[in-house]
Amino acid sequence: MGTNGSTMLKPLRQGLPPLDPAAVSDAASCALPARYEAVREARRFTRATLGQWDVGDRFDDICLVVSELVTNALRHAVPADTGCAEHQPSVRLHLMRWTERLVCAVRDPSHETPAPRESDDFSAESGRGLFLVDSFADSWGWHPLAGTLDGKVVWALFRLQSAG
What we know:
The chain is an alpha+beta fold. It is built from three helices and five strands, in the order E-H-H-E-E-H-E-E. It has helices at 38-52, 59-77, 129-136, and strands at 26-32, 91-97, 101-108, 139-144, 152-159. Strands 1-2-3-5-4 form a five-stranded antiparallel β-sheet, with helices on one face. Helix 1 (38-52) packs antiparallel against helix 2 and helix 2 (59-77) packs antiparallel against helix 3 (129-136).
C-alpha cells in the first residue's frame, strides 16, 4: 500500500466542482448493466429526466456528453471475459441539477485515468469521446472513489440559463 500512488495523478484529476449538495434542486441516478446496450438505456433515462427539468438549450449537449461518458465507462468497465458479468460492479449514471448548473457524473469500476487518446487516425472512434466532452461541457474532471466503493467518477458540468 505504498504512498507513491499520488505522484502518478494526472493534472486532470479534480474532485467535483464546489457545489453545495444541500442546494441540489433535482437529482436522479440509474444503474447501468456492464453491457454496451446500456448506452441506449442511459440516453433514454437522460432524455426522460431532462424532459422534466428545465435545461433550456443545453438539452442536446448534455445528452451527447452523457452518451460519451457512459460509452467510455463501459469500455473500461466491461471485462474482456464477460463470463462473470454478474459479479462486476455496474456503471452508475448520476444527474444533479442546481438552479444554474447541471452535473452529470458516471461511476465505473476502473482505476484508469480518463485521458484523450493521441491518435493520428481521426476516424478512430476510440478516444474521441473526451474531446467531445471537453467541447460541449463547461468543465469536467474525475476523482477516484474513496472507502468501500471501487473505481472512479468522471463528471461534466453545464451552466444553465436561470429561468428568471
